[in-house]
Each structure stands twice: as C-alpha cells, then as structure tokens.
Amino acid sequence: MAIPVTESWAPEVLAMANSITRDIPRIRAILDHLGIRNVDYEDPADYVPSAIAQARGRGKLVAFQAALAKADLITDGSVDINGTLADRLARLHSFVARAHLPVDARVAARRLLLASDLVCRIDAGHRHGTGLLVTPTLVATAAHLVSDLVDATDPGHPAPRAGSTSRIHVTFGDMTDLLDGQAPPTRLKPIPAPLADSWLALYSPPTAEETAGETFDLHTVAGIGADGPWDLAILQLAEAQPFLPMPPCGDLPRNPFQIHVLHHPDDGMGGVLPLLWSVGRVDGHLGDPPVRLLHSANTSDGSSGAPVFDAEFRVVGLHQAGLETRPAGDDAAFNRAVPMSPWSSRLESLQLAETAPSVTTVEKLDGHGNPVTRAVIGRLGTVERIWRGHSLEATAPERLIAVVGEPGLGLRFTHHLVHAVVTRYGGAYAAIDVANCQRDDAMSFADKVAGAFAAAPAAYAPTGLTTRQREVRSHTAPALSETLRTVAGTGGAWLVLEGFDSTAARPSGAVVDLVRQLILELPDAPGVRLVLAGWQETLPSEFEPSIEFLEAPSAEDIARTFVPPGSEPPLLQALVPMVRDVLGGDEPALRGPCPYVIAEHARSRMAGYVESLIKALMEQQRDGGP
C-alpha cells in the first residue's frame, strides 16, 4: 500500500509519491534499470519523493512513471498521473491504455532485431511451426508440433522415432528486409540448423483437453499442475548457433500487459510466411502460479511454439494455441501461451557439451583477386580448437593455437577457418603474414598489430636503457597486450600470425621475441586469442597442449564435405567407399607433398552426381531401409 510521506516536498511531488506503492527494493531496481542514481535516505518515507526528484532531474520522469505502472506500483484510483504534476513535471497526454505503455523507441527496436535472430521456423513432417533458441544448442517449441515424430509409448521416456531426424528442419533468418532502405522488401535466404541424431532433449505433451479441437475450453487447466504438462518440446541442435540471450520476464505482472509475438504463420495457400510480428496483451493468468496465459496477439496455423515477449523483449513464454472461432471484431484474449518461468530452470541441465560448428566452406580470393568459395576438406581438429578458444571460459592454453605441419597441409588456410568462425559468432579478427616483417623491430610490429585492428598504437616509447628482450618483456608486450584487451571488449579478439615457416623470408628476432612474450601475457588477457600458423619455436610447458599437428586429408574427410551437418553416421559410411573408388590409384598420393590438390580433384569429379545420391540415401534411411 502507499504510505504518506513527509510534507517537505512540493505538493505535486507529494501527490505523485502518495500514489506510488512504497516498495523500495523494486523502485531501486527500476532506477538502476533507467540509469538514474539511487538516492540515499535517512527517513524511508522520503525515498519515493527523492526518487521522483532524481528522475525529474535526469529528464526521465515519463520513463520512470511508465516503469512504475508496468511494475504495478501505481495505486489504482489515486492521483491522475497525467495532470497532477502540472508544468514542473513531464506529463503523459493520453494515458489511457495501461497495457501499452510508451517505451524507448531505439532500445525497443534493437531488442526486436536481437529477438528476431533467435526465432526459427520448424518444419516437422506435414506440420510447421515456430521455435525459440534458448541456449546455443537448444530450441524450444510446442510439443504438439512434433508429436507425430515422437514415440511416447512410455511417457517417462519419450524418444524420437526412427528416421525422424531427417523429417524435422529448423531454419533461422527466414525473414524479409529492406536491403537498400527503399526498394521492396527482399526475402532473405534462411540458414538451416541441423538437429542432433538424438534431437529430443525434453518432451512434455499437452493435456487431452488441449487437443480436443472445437470442444476445447480456453480457460481450463484441468490436469495441469506445478510440474506441467507444458505442451513443450526442447530440440537439440547438432551444433551451436550464434546466441545472445533474451532474459526471461521473471514474475509476471498481474494486470494486463503488452506482448510481442514473433512467428511464422501459414499464408493460407499452403506456404509459410517469413517472420511476422504481432502485438497484443496478456489479459489473464490461469492457475496460481500461472500454468497458462491468455493473450490477444494475432496468430494462425504455424504460430505454435512462437516466443511471446513483453514490451522490453524479455521472454514471457511460448504461444500454444487459440480458439478456431471467435466473435468478429473482438480483440479479447482468445489465445493461450505457456509461461517460461516454470521450465526455464531445466535448460542448463539439458544443455549438452557444445560441439564445434561445421565450417563447410570458406570465402577466399583467387589469383586475380576475385572471391571464390572453397570447400573445407578435413581440418575438424582446427575448427574444434577455434571453437574451444572462442568460449568465454577458455583457458590461456585454449586461447593459443600453434599450428604446425609439413608444407602443403594448409598452414595458411588456417586464417580462413578462424575468420569463418569469428564472422559467424562475433569478435574482432586480424591476420598478419610475419614473413613480411623481417625488418620490423618490436615497436613497429606492435604498431602493425594495432593497425590491423584499427586500434590506437600502444602508448609507449622505448627507453633504450635496457636490453631488447627486457624492453619487450617489461614494456612493449604488456602495452600491446593491453591494446588487444581493449580491442577484445566483451566479444574477444583473434590475432592470426602466419608465415613463421616461410623459406623465402623469416620474421625478425624482435618479432619472434614479442610473440613469445605475448603468449606469456595470455593468462592476464582473457579476451585475447592468438593463432600461430607455422610456429617454429618451443612453447612454454604449460602451453604444450596448444600445439596442433596437421595431418593429410583422408577419403572420409572428402566424403564428409558432401554430407549435411548432423546427418546420421550410416550416410557418411556409405559415401566413403565411393570416394575411394574415385581416388583409385591416387589415394596413396594423399600422403604426398600436395594432398589437397588430389582431394579437391576427387571431390570435383563426384560433385556432379553426389547430390542426388545423398538425397536417395537419406530417403532410404527415412523409410527405414538398410
């Protein structure tokens, strides 16, 4: 309840303060969220008017009022929040729709874009729906969407049906965009996300009443308790996806509140629409605590499993279903959603150890400077090391990759793999050929590294009063490490140095000394990743696990370039003998001086017919064939 405050404030401030519930912890959280300094107070009764004064002084009173209303901290029937503060305070001229309060336009727009990247289209057999990426490798959707592909004979141990992996397709980025700002929208190319072989991480089916069709009672929660069921399926992806999580909503407001639904409804003609955005409100909770929500956002077939966000794009839940018929022109809540809070705590236990992403192709320049796409043959170990190093929890040895091997094994190809992962998952990237640094001293090379990241050079001038190695150890390397930490920020910085093995030109001793010292700086630079292709020196003992010895590609590596990520092992096993037939007498040459020339030639000879062959093999597996 609102508690009267002291009389030392202006009347309009007192009037507003007396209309606010004095829940100081929640008000402090609102001030923190808005970037308004929290007031210190001796008398708790003065806290609310002090907070109002602080919000007014920062020009954020409207935002403060709106946040209080969204948090249900404005006392019903109290002072008119529009008019009482008069000219000294901001006013909301039409505060009539409490469920649709003003929000910061640019912040909300950015959150909408971030949320859009997490929404996927799901095609499951003859059905389609929508899902939400809730961890890098887990997608949440409606259980009824995939029920035909799940064997739930034993309710305690539901399992994917045989061949079901090839019948579920998850794609991100199926949306339209204004690529040049003015032209008609362009539908972007969706990005497939293959499922793991054992793709069902969690399955909680709907109740019988919820699948009753026209007799479905929108308001019933019969058979639903604190443990569900939730009409929820969590799908396990074969590899991690770019993921910037949207926070859960937490405690749901009791009063109606605005929501946003991002979904892939059908187009009414057998097709599926690109990502759409519907706005509505949650009008009611079913159960206490809520086990279902009633909302008014427009949805259709294909919206099942779609994420429901609040006005700040925090996840409220997943759209479940709605009434097939409803009164014309009525915008009441005829749809149901499953709240996220009861099951979100289980996600961490469902998350498997993340597998490295598939890097199937890279973009590089040909001899004439034209971009070309190259298939990646082999190099799984390198990609796995890059992925481990990309983790926020990566240790210093995991953030160093020293790639060594014989000529012809693709040492210089390494930077393309790093670039592919960093481009997809974020971070800063730069590559330098140290064979061109034979005349550099430590300072000039440090400036070259900073320049490659478009960063300011290290602010340090050598004293000339000590040895070169001591200068590097005490000043140059720490200054460069600090520059790289600044570049890394929260996304990480990848520095790829190649050419240490060059026979035509070698980097100067000063450059090698600086790189050695940068390695020793890694434990104190958690955002920095260092890749050394062709490294010739001995590493410190604690970094010995950082060495990768390259191996020649195999027939299996060539076959894997044709197999979709996440495919079941028999498909790869069926292709390997075919690759060996194509290689013929050239297979021993894979262990010779130019193995990738042989491998790429064999791959090009198969490319003309292997696509239809793989399709036939996948259909055979789906139908339960040998």
3D structure, described in words:
- It is a single chain.
- Helix content is 28%, strand content 20%.
- It is flat, with a radius of gyration of 30 Å.
- It has helices at 11-17, 24-34, 47-57, 61-70, 105-116, 143-146, 347-350, 380-390, 414-425, 442-452, 468-488, 509-521, 555-560, 569-583, 595-622; strands spanning 119-124, 127-135, 138-141, 150-151, 159-160, 168-172, 176-177, 186-187, 191-192, 195-204, 232-237, 257-263, 276-286, 292-295, 307-310, 315-322, 335-339, 361-365, 371-375, 400-404, 428-433, 493-498, 528-533, 547-549.
- Helix 14 crosses helix 15 (595-622).
- The chain contains 15 helices and 24 strands.
- With 626 residues, it is of the alpha+beta class.
- A hairpin with a 5-residue loop joins strand 18 (361-365) and strand 19 (371-375).
- Strands 9-6-1-2-3-11-10 form a seven-stranded antiparallel sheet.
**Rg on CA atoms, Å:** 30 Å
| Largest pleated sheet | 7 strands, antiparallel
* Number of strand elements: 24
Strand content: 15-25%
Instruction: Compute the separation of the termini in Å.
Output: 70 Å
Strand order, sheet with most strands: 9-6-1-2-3-11-10
Global geometry: flat
Mean pLDDT rating: 83
Number of helices: 15
Given helix and strand content, the structural type is alpha+beta
- What is the chains' assembly state? single chain
Low-confidence stretches: 1-5, 76-94
Helix amount: 25-40%
